[in-house]
Amino acid sequence: MYNSPTVRARGERSGYFVTNLALRQNFFDNDLSITFQVRDVFGTMARETINFGDDFYTFRTWDPNTPTFSVSVSYKINNYRADRRVPRDRDNGDMDDMNGF
Question: Which of 8, 22, 32, 87 is the least buried, fewest Cβ under 10 Å from its Cβ?
Answer without folding.
Answer: 87
